[in-house]
Amino acid sequence: MTESPGGSERVPSRDRRRFPGISSRAYEHPADRSALVALRKLSGFDTVFKTLSGLLPERSLRLMFLSDSVRVSDQQFAHLNDMLRDACYILDLEKVPPMYVNQDPSPNAMCIGLDEPIIVLTTGLVELLDEEEMRAVIGHEVGHALSGHAVYRTVLLFLTNLALKIAWIPLGNVAVMAIVTALREWFRKSELSADRAGLLVGQDLQASMRGLMKLAGGNHLHEMNVDAFLQQAEEYEAGGDLRDSVLKVLNMLPRSHPFTTVRAAELKKWSASRDYQRIMDGHYPRKEEDKDTSVSDSFRESAAHYAESVRTSKDPLMGLVRDIAGGAGDLGGKLRDTVFRGGSRPGSSGGANGTGGTDGPDAGGPEGPSGR
After folding, report:
1. What's the pLDDT tens digit per position in 246-279?
2. Which of 132, 133, 141, 237 is catalytic?
């Protein structure tokens, strides 16, 4: 790390650590890793998806970006091209994927493609982020490419479009949407994996945090604070009652990405972990070991992660799950207390003589929306 001329902000030196032969398993979220290991073990998996590439609109997408976007190269967006090659060098991705800049004011980036992945950045993102923040984003997309996420994202896009086209067929739509919902849950975990890859490339946690804050609040860093932003994630997890827990699930279902504050909190937690430190010290899984990876071990790791998440979560719904798993005696009372946390139970009175009470948790007036 080197100190900037201003004397306070620290940014990575150009001599960042490289990870020769690193396997994507080194940074993948346990739930993401278990799914990928299982898919890679399926006989004929690659052949099936290569065949599907003829049915999916991949060629159309490639032609569209080639004809109506700017391809990053030494002649166009040269600074982004340098970052892309640097990210591939650090994560030891042999073939540098093509990258395009597409005119779109919404900040976004994606890695798609069945046969060969391509990376797309919007102009809104390029204009929003500084050099080190963009380095983390490009590392994020290269992480997707190294893990093979582009294949599954393309399938997800295809199935989502298919679900819209056959929405008039009740059972057919339900079946496709069930697959889409499962794919979205997996893909949200894959985004956490790619965030970790971005940190390995940029090797600057503060830059990664700043980039996520800008995605949430725009280019107003002087008005934002990392600690306060992370506090939002803690309040989001622990706040409210069982009704809020259900709303969180419903809000999350249609999304392909986790909420931004949650991503920031997850990345900060991983950056302080032993796993991250071991990678930075040069101890990580290698690509040549991928073929010997045990599917059952990966699923056990995933199950252990979810069990630990339930055990440590402050969410009311997860608390109820722990009580049920632990054989709570007064389950009915626990459920009532969890649902109506912060307010009186229906029918109860607040005063000693049964007067002056409220009719329920919302009697004081409707709660205002907490959306952004």
Report:
1. 666 666 666 767 889 999 999 999 999 999 999 9
2. 141
